[in-house]
Amino acid sequence: MTDNPKPLVSPLAPANFPDIPSIAGVRFASAHSGTKYNNRDDVMLAELAPGTTIAGVFTRSATRAAPVLDCQEKIGGPSDGGAAFFVNAGNANAFTGAHGDGSVAAITNATAQTLGISASRVFSSSTGVIGEPLAHDAIIAKLSELKTTLSADAITPAAHAILTTDTFAKGASATFDGDGGKITIAGFAKGSGMIAPDMATMLVYIFTDAKVARPLLQDMVATATDTTFNCITVDSDTSTSDTLLVAATGQSTAAEITATDTKFRAALHDIMLDLAHQVIRDGEGATKFVEIRVTGAESDTDARKVAMSVANSPLVKTAIAGEDPNWGRIVMAVGKSGAAADRDRLAISFGDILVAEKGWVAPDYTEQQGVAYMKNQDITINIDMGLGACTTVAWTCDLTHGYIQINADYRS
Amino acid sequence: MTDNPKPLVSPLAPANFPDIPSIAGVRFASAHSGTKYNNRDDVMLAELAPGTTIAGVFTRSATRAAPVLDCQEKIGGPSDGGAAFFVNAGNANAFTGAHGDGSVAAITNATAQTLGISASRVFSSSTGVIGEPLAHDAIIAKLSELKTTLSADAITPAAHAILTTDTFAKGASATFDGDGGKITIAGFAKGSGMIAPDMATMLVYIFTDAKVARPLLQDMVATATDTTFNCITVDSDTSTSDTLLVAATGQSTAAEITATDTKFRAALHDIMLDLAHQVIRDGEGATKFVEIRVTGAESDTDARKVAMSVANSPLVKTAIAGEDPNWGRIVMAVGKSGAAADRDRLAISFGDILVAEKGWVAPDYTEQQGVAYMKNQDITINIDMGLGACTTVAWTCDLTHGYIQINADYRS
To answer: Which among A31, A135, A188, A236 is placed 20 to 30 Å from B241, CA to CA?
Structure first.
């Protein structure tokens, strides 16, 4: 058994885990299975009341983990009876062949039996080391303890039980007036390294008491993913386990959500963005939170190419770590992105400070301005391509000795 | 003025700069312009005899440096009269607007005048910081000194004068029997960071006394680039200055090279590969030289996607730095590559050691074998996709604290 090698809390962490209200129809429990970590819970169960609709998005990796493949098979199924989410931390059950598929079946069947629900409604996730067999017997042995401790108020320990190299638990919630009653949405996430989501990020669980039909919920989740979790990157490495699950219990007195309900859609988006930002703020070794705003691109695809090329450039990220306003590296990353670019129309700003335009350094820019700006913990890089009207935003962190330390020593 | 911040020689460096024979029709000179580095030459001139044919490949970056744009305009021109290559190190003259274009014109015109040749036959390169004006007057002031010291035997100091963050000069040569006389090819290169060439690498100059028509030389250079410089990556960041120039003086007594001459083609390829490998061995912070062999891919494009995804993965590269046989990260990088992949047909070996196959760890593989293998300085990762007959090879280095140190401190 190993302990988490990252002893410190990220300097970008929020002060506290937020106060998160309970969601009618959802109960949580967590426990210590002893399969990986000492002295902390490493399995989490969320029980969902009958009538809950479930939507999800998953990694597009060609080497997806066994539980992801299982979730993808189940996600479109009917919303009959109760449901559950089950998570273990420390072992990803990825690239574990037929044994891995067997572990997923064993865990989801045992969870179904314990809760008296159908196994087709149990969605499991595993996160941690790739390629090692999952000790599912030790995990299943915890199910009766988990069942007896289920509580509507246990979302905070649940959010902690799913962590691996994370230095803090990530949570967010919102309560607002629906049509005929209050609606609450609450969620939590884990993720710190191997973060360059492609459909969703590491593990994210969101719960609401709103009434939402499954196809509409799926559509809203997929749309919001494109501008939240799919716009973040810690290290350009896409996980084999990325999973985002959203459960709507329908127990609010508010009327059913419709496709034109902007309030619910916006609240869901904001919680997803908040959790995505928290994942970046816990990026392995991160000391800076970086927003990259691209405007004036010829196409949406080009805007994204530029944003992600800058966000994933080791030379840009090390310059930010060194508080060096090295805008030449941003020019380099724009140039290599594959997007249409015209050197003489490109403009780059740090926050409100115009740095470069018309193919060269801006006439009023001074190195001192750049150096002072780079001392901020939150950095905004604006890139105007000067070619069209398409825009995007991406978020990343810097690349530091901390990242090397964590990943040259820890087997993840 | 700053000194090179990388004090040590790469642990992967060859013992010595090779003995390189002179090439009939080529003379070299180098000097200290005082524009950037203390106590070392930082400008280089190669004078090429009348009749020399010149071929070249250049970065495809959309933010190419001014001298690259100038070279691209000139490269297809007629081989009339003498020619020259001119290089300054310390300033890339990239993203310097109209001033940058003016610097290129000033340097190439002054070189032409000094040597009594046409400016359309002077190919210049600049390497170093992006976005700072080039002090071309101080550089031009060195031209008469350079002219008077031109020597056929000065290739070694020339190879040293073009370095920036390099820790060693990179050279290679070959002499073989042509049809009617000996042929010699000799070349040198620079490059250490911002290495993910797209058409060519940083700066590479190759000289031969062979007689080769320009279109054939261009074709042979472009073909060999695809399997040499375009298959290496230090950090996935493509330079704004990548330039490879090859000059054939035609002064050997051997008959003119034809398209079917495999000896010359092979020798040129081998020198390019040798120089490309030396660039990786001088990768910023590198402690391991890594060869990635992909077989069984469905297409050439897929083979390259997989090789470059593994070669550029920060998690794979940090694992190698930590001598951790973390093959799960290779599975991850294959999965995210976008290439067709089947988890259950994929096989991964470290050298001759079969690590994973059929969707899981190989039955005879032990962690001890992997740990022992990873202690080697040269690492080979074999990835068989099990889907088709397409193959490729790529080369990279590990990602270490040294890379962070160099790039969080040094303005390049």
So the answer is: A236
CA distance A33 to chain B (A): 23
| B184–A contact, CB cutoff 8 A | no
**What ipTM goes with this model?**
0.82
Above pLDDT 90, what percent of chain B? 70
B26-281 to CATH, choices 3.60.70.12, 1.10.730.10, 2.60.40.10, 3.40.1620.10 = 3.60.70.12
B358 to chain A nearest CA, in Å? 7
Contact A196, B336 (CB under 8 A): yes
Does the beta-carbon distance from B196 to A324 stay under 8 Å?
no
Q: Does A355 touch chain B (CB under 8 A)?
A: no
Sheet containing strand A122-129, edge to edge, reads A26-31, A43-48, A83-91, A122-129
Mutation for testing the B interface, residue in A199, A288, A404, A410 having most B CBs under 10 Å? A404
User: In Å, how far is B346's CA from the nearest CA of chain A?
Assistant: 10
Length of chain B: 412
CATH superfamily for domain A289-409: ArgJ beta chain, C-terminal domain (3.10.20.340)
A residues 251-310 lying closer than 8 A (beta carbon) to B: none
Q: Are strands A378-384 and A289-297 parallel, antiparallel or unpaired?
A: parallel
Low-confidence ranges of chain A (pLDDT < 50): 1-7, 199-200, 412
| Residue A151 distance to chain B (closest CA, Å) | 36
Structure tokens at B116: 């009594």
The β-bridge relationship of strands A43-48 and A26-31 is antiparallel
**pTM score:** 0.85
**Nearest-CB residue to A240 (from B63, B319, B331):** B331
Where along chain A do the CATH 3.10.20.340 domains lie? Answer: 289-409
pLDDT in tens, A176-208: 999 999 999 999 988 877 776 654 457 888 999
Asked if A288 and A379 count as a contact pair (C-beta separation under 8 A), the reply is yes
B380 as an active site residue: the answer is: no
Please give the Cα distance from A162 to A142 (Å, whole number). Answer: 15
Q: Do A331 and B240 touch (CB under 8 A)?
A: yes
pLDDT digits (tens, 9 = 90+) for A173-184: 999 999 999 999
CA distances from B305 to A231, B200, B302 (A): 22, 18, 5
Token match 């809203």: residue? A220
Query: CATH 3.60.70.12 residue ranges in chain B?
Result: 26-281
B138: tokens are 């101080």
Residues of B in contact with A94 (CB under 8 A): 328, 331
Of A363-372, B236-245, B313-322, B384-393, the one with minimum mean pLDDT is: B236-245
Query: Least CA distance to A99: which residue of chain B?
Result: B360
**Which of A40-54, A132-146, B228-242, B306-320 bottoms out in mean pLDDT, i.e. has the lowest?**
B228-242
8 Å CB contact of B315 and A412: yes
- What sign does the CA torsion over B98, B100, B106, B111 have? negative
